[in-house]
Amino acid sequence: MTVVAGDETWRADSYVAAQFTRSAVSEDRAAQPLPTFGEWWEDRRRAALFSVEEVPFRELDGWKSQSGSDNLVHESGRFFAVQGVRVESETHGTWSQPVINQSEIGILGLLVREFGGVPHFLVQAKIEPGNVNTLQLSPSVQATRSNYTRVHGGADTRYLKYFRGGGGGQVLVDSLQSEQGAWFWHKRNRNMVVRVTEDVPLHEDYRWVTAQQLRRLLGVENLVNMDTRAVLACMRFAAPPRHLPAHDDPYLRALCRSYDPVNGTALHTDVEILSWHTEMRTRCDWHTSLVPLAEVRNWRRSGSAIEDEEGRSFRVIGVRVRTGNREINQWSQPLIAPRGTGLAAFLTTSVHGVLHVLVRARPEPGVMDTVELGPTVRRTSETDVAEDEPFHAEVAAADPRRVRFDTVLSEEGGRFHHAQTRYQVIEAPDGFPTEVPDDFCWVTVHQLMALLKHRHYVNIEARSLLACLHSLW
After folding, report:
1. All domains of the chain, ordered by start, with CATH?
2. Phi, psi for residue 159 in degrees, rounded to 5
């Protein structure tokens, strides 16, 4: 194993967490003030030459329906395929659906460099075919293996060398995590933060921002993309300093205490949480397997879409893309298109003055270990509503004054078409019970961050909500 040592101080986890927090509270020490971000963003938006057209499957260049299975596959055998997944369960019955099978592990990476002693992160204005607004804020590198090995014959991925060991950077975060288990089969990405000390040539689509600026931008609808949120969630922050105005608000004061690993007031120990999670995985009787798309039941296929017969889930569509701002200028591909806006919500409450978040052990057909920790309430689309779901009523009827975060943010625009989720962090009413159903558990923010040392423990929606929690103080 080759390790780039870097500064000895940066090799201590506690120091890295403190530096991330320093960046998160240094609004007046940013290399470029936040008001100028809007000017840069508008300039990038005007320069974005991009068109997306929905087309029949037969017009997807380089894609074909595989003989015998009906799977939608790329002629190179790379990128991804649309096929079927079957779930068999004694408690939930047997059912099947289309799923994206993308076995390659991609890289989601943020470069970090200090300016004026404050860590800044390199983000990019990136176009994706499924984005509802074309352009969103992406990590320094966001690339599948097929992309960065140039299977498409396009240009090199900028800044890739820093995340592949050839740039002399120091790895601060490197976490292998899942993506949407409702739509992907065993999809994983490497979430990385790499520190550099040298000058980095800056392309016009890229910009250095502090964690404080990223936290503020999270409140803007459909701006910070899913991949940036995923990397942010894998960064461990130290407890925010006590001089922040947030400490004047009892809720935010409890939130800040929730970052402290030694406050001793967590409702459950780390071992209890890990044991509970293991028990939930053991109890789950779902058996999942890939099947040919031709064997998926209760879905119909036309020349332009694959959709469930009840019209409640999602569609698979084809698109043709033209752009002057990507590694290649035009391509075609399938996308999953959810029906309307989904929901992901955390209920939170203060226990002994420390904020706790209510997570749920949630099975999904596409995750590797079947069960990961997710939001308190989650639905993938507007039609995916289960009114008898625990805590659905509490979220739906929440007092607006207790809704601490409420923003519509996009899911992965490279595979999903206009997939939006309303992310909410809600303060539970006074006296809310800490006794919850077996598949729910209260955790502190520090405990949730610590779980991300493990792979496949916390799902992508819960990780997005963790990033949203970081934006509140």
Report:
1. 245-285+341-470 (3.90.79.40)
2. 70, 10
Question: What pLDDT is stored for residue 145 in this prediction?
Answer: 81
Tokens of 402: 């207790």
How far is the C-alpha of 408 from the C-alpha of 406, rounded, in Å?
A: 7
Structure-token pair, residue 385: 């509503």
Between CA 111 and CA 109 the distance in angstroms is 7
CA atoms within 13 Å, Cβ hemisphere of 460 = 30
pLDDT digits (tens, 9 = 90+) for 224-251: 999 999 999 999 999 999 888 877 899 9
Coil, strand or helix at 183 = coil
DSSP state at residue 14: H
Buried b (16+ CB within 10 A) or exposed e, 175-206: bebbbbbbbbbbbbbbbbbbbbeeebeeeebb
CB atoms near residue 275 (< 10 Å)? 12
Residues written for the chain: 473
The three-class DSSP label of residue 326 is coil
Distance CA 22, CA 29 (A): 10
Query: Helical H runs in 89-174?
Result: 145-148
Going 340 to 130 to 412 to 193, the CA torsion angle's sign is: negative
pTM over 0.90: yes
Rounded CA-CA distance 414/120 in Å is 26
**431 contact partners, CB below 8 Å, separation of at least 6:** none
Residue among 399, 402, 281, 395 at smallest CA distance from 342: 395
Positive or negative CA dihedral for 160, 165, 168, 173?
A: positive
* Residue 408 phi, psi dihedral angles, 5° rounding: -85, 125
- Alpha carbons 435 and 429: distance in angstroms, whole number: 14
- CA 375/CA 372 separation, integer angstroms: 10
Rounded Cα distance, 363 and 326, in Å: 36
Confidence of residue 3 (pLDDT cuts 50, 70, 90): very low
Integer CA distances (angstroms), 117 to 84, 108, 394, 473, in order: 51, 25, 44, 22
Q: Is the dihedral of CA 278, 385, 378, 293 positive or negative?
A: positive
125-179 pLDDT, tens digit per residue, is 999 999 999 999 999 999 988 776 656 556 789 999 999 987 789 999 999 999 9
CB 317 within 8 A of CB 63: no
Q: Which residue has the tokens 């407890």?
A: 239
